[in-house]
Amino acid sequence: MPGKLEMISLFVRDMDRMVSFYRDVVGFPIKRYSPGSPYASFVTGSCRLALYQRDKLEELFPHALSYPRGTNGTFSLAIIYTSVVEFEREAQRIIANGAHALDQIQDAPWGIRTVTVTDPEGNLLELYADLE
Fold first, then answer.
1. Which structural domain, as residue segments, surrounds residue 15?
2. pTM of the predicted protein model
3. Average model confidence (pLDDT) for the chain?
């Protein structure tokens, strides 16, 4: 039996700012975090989101790591909402509280209402709800 995806980790420059964004703006409850710690995790449903401070991560590996600059187009986190009404309320709240919207709220041909935003370090977050 294959394993299951249980956690997604972002390697961040500014831990306090990113913890604040995912806790206060996105609204994920913290599972583990202490101020000054290089690690934080959030309850997000069946898959946890973890943040790890980049300079501490680099101490663990014997080779250099590289990171994208600006908006990170190498992946996207997707956050699903249970209804279009909830999606629209939360998307507007998240954008009003500091997420940068890359596009407008729109209906995609594959049956979702969606908007893509970035966190303070340029990682993509797709916010969406099924139309049916």
1. 7-57
2. 0.89
3. 93
